[in-house]
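Q: Hi! First time doing this. I have a protein sequence and I read that you can turn it into a structure. Is that right? Here it is:
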Amino acid sequence: MNGSKLLCGCAVAFMLFGSMITPVSAGTDADRSYGRVEQNIVDKNPDFKVDFEYGIDGYAVYEKGSVIRLTISCEEDFDGTVSVSPVDTDMYPTQSIKSSRKVSMAAGDEVKLEFCVDNLGAGRVKVELTDESGEVVYSENDMLSIANDDMTIMTAVMSDSSDDLKYINDLQLDCYSDTVNVDRISVTEADMPGSELGLDALEYILIDNYDTSKLSDDQYSAMMSWMYDGGTLILSLGENGEKVLRRFEDGVVGCAAVGTGSADVSFADKAGQVIAEQKALGVTQFEMNGGSAVAGISDPAPIYIKNIGKGRTVVVPYSLGAPLAADEKEQKAVAERIFEEGLTATVCDNVLRNYYDADSSYGFDTA
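A: Yes, that's right. Below is the predicted 3D structure, encoded as structure tokens:
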């Protein structure tokens, strides 16, 4: 993860709709065009400074929900309302709810606010501050460089060893008759929203070597609601399974660690042919309420799945960040088998519908 994600002005500026627009960068991977904000201040007020972040580490998708985080500072006392709302465009009429919060700030204060909107539309968002009389004292109309819907299973990876999971970017899965790519975003609890709307752009969440007790009650509830609506949660255990399962011992997942150890594990493809073997692989033994073992992938350490609403939990006794095979090709083949067990009809339908719907329309594209 990048360090500070406060947004700052760049040296380049240009004119849009007659106003000065300052491109602002968020904390995303350097090779990605999304995560930026073209900030257009409409009602200027030197007493206010607004920093704008959105998405999961800057990743959001057309016409899907998203988290929006504002950091507001003021030079004078302020009592009033802060609101955010996606703005209609000709190509993307947006049916979205305006979100508002009452705030009270003393001079020199800074307040951090989180909003989760149900639909970003084309990515134009209005931020407005009004005083107690309803008068607008500051506003901006920003354009977000959000992603087009493509044939991608976007996976948020929570791991203290995220570099060991970079290889999942190259995974490919079969959704019906189409092949879809897996992409990843590395996140921490600081990136996770407190509402399922903020997770709308994700298909999978993978947790590996991460202490899930860091998640707040709201973040945990958001994750469970997101899964009920069709998301896939992969819990990758290995030697650190106890801390991965801390948040999931009770509740709908109901999976608790009962010990750790090692095992000589062999991995097979769909035809039952062994594709990789690993000696003394670290594993966590666990008990799962209602889960079912999946035979034929990893023996003698099977993965377990549990359908929850429209979604699914996949519990892997070993770590996907550990060496599972002799080379990278075999490692990817093993991971693809496990990811395919997380594919539900909801995930496939969403990915393919979003792609083909987007392909038949025009969208805002970022260079």
